[in-house]
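Note to self: user wants both folds in one dump. Writing first protein now.
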Amino acid sequence: MKGMKLSALLLSATMVFSGCNMSNLGKGGLIGSTSGGALGALVGALIAKDGNKGKGAAIGAAVGVAVGTTAGTLIGHKMDKAKAAAEAAKAQAEILTAADGTQYVKATFESGILFQTGKSALSATATADINTFVTKLKAEDNTFNIAVAGYTDNQPWKNCTAEQSKKKNEELSLKRAQAVEKQLLASGYDKNYIIHVVGAGEANPVADNATAEGQEKNRRVEVYILPSKEMIEAANAEAEKK
């Protein structure tokens, strides 16, 4: 699935249960009861956007595991821990919920922290931060699905046409996403749970590219942390014991 064109991944989804004051642990049970428990698959198209804020999650057909109210609460607790693991690695992390009730974490790493300008080699600090992320994530569960997406601003490359610059930005964003993937693996994360890596280039800006501040925000790597089939099945089994 890696390397699939981004255009095939842009599926619309709506974020629900977005209240800031309800913990994800609490929302887990709420989702299990109101959505009918259908989580759908988590391994299809992963990245959907809505305006200037990532609101979507890809829901494919490859997992297709239902989750009940209690299991939903358990999954919600794990996502709280995944968010904390990302924040410990200096990422901006938020818990999002897709229209069908699937909960996941989007962690955003600023490219300025990860890489030198125009480069795709991780800095020593970034390498340590990703190692911290993997260590803390695995301490909670080693079966989270992970997807990685790299992005750039829309600034042109020297002596290149607009189309050439766009292509170079796509190539750079992919190399950066792959660098993060490589470090995830080097830090001990199981390759079977890194389910998608994509370079989106200039697509899906989160800020205005007309300003230097906006360009800086658009240069980023997003790491999506989702429950895997194994995680959902384990939560269902645990729920049956209660």
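First done. Writing the second protein, which came from a different request thread.
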Amino acid sequence: MKILAIESSCDETAAAVVEDGRKVISSVIASQVEEHKLYGGVVPEIASRRHAEAIVPVVRQALDEAEVTLENIDAIAVTYAPGLIGALLVGVNFAKGLSLSTGIPLVPTHHLRSHIASNYISNAELKPPFMCLVVSGGHSHIVMVEDYTKMKIIGRTRDDAAGEAFDKAARTMGMSYPGGIELDKVAEKGDPFAFKLPRPVVHDAPYDFSFSGLKTAVINLIHNAAQKGEELKKPDICASFRYAVVDCLSSNFLKAAKDYNVNKLVIAGGVSANSLLRSTLKNECDKLGYKFYMPDKSLCGDNAAMVGSQGYYEFLSGNVAGTDLNAYATMSIE
């Protein structure tokens, strides 16, 4: 079964053709990062306009690279939530029009579920149930994946997402958007114990995260030093901050796995490309005898291949939409 997948939830216009939920035949991404760098983050209006300009050539290229036509496509999967509403609407309306004109079934697909599904592409043997840490610029969740389309949130951030904290800390240090990637690279040369940063805890919810205080702590550290004319070593700040964020993420994730008696752990989302998070969880899982899975780094960011993977399982479960499908800026993964 071949799925044509479309993704436009933020600042990447993407299309892919995926077979049977696991095999990527083609994957095309048109990124807007260079343009949004000028503003230090994604500008929703600009993102929507660029999606509208790119979506036709991107979809056409995905079909051409897969050497298929729409006659060979069994379903069209599209990200409809969550994300920037204007950006989502471009993808959703394009997919609706394509479905209406061709009669190909339309499959609404959740963005975070798709991130989890990126692991099905990278790990052929992976099947639910398992517990997943989903970490990105806008989301930080611990999710129990009971089946391909049945999920339950175990923990979540109460304020900033981990990726957002990384990007804001990086911007304070003068790094360009998206700063989290550069921060990760600079941190490799620093001392993670150079600065003592807090580990926020949500006392009434042991699996929940809170990164706002940690983000503020590192920003205040940088600003206070600047006001005193002191020069801090950027690699040490990056390493200390990265270590603190990864410590919070991995500690809660491993505690949840132990308490729920789960020994199959998975990570997903843009921050799952973070080198320290990957190595920390792999080492801890090896010590505990847990199975650990992570997506290929090329699949950690937003892409349509992951949408095609999750869309396949949504289609098998009977999740098909009509022309009344709408986009939603927020929606629970459940």
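Dump finished. Worth passing along: The chain has two domains: 2-116+300-316, 128-297.
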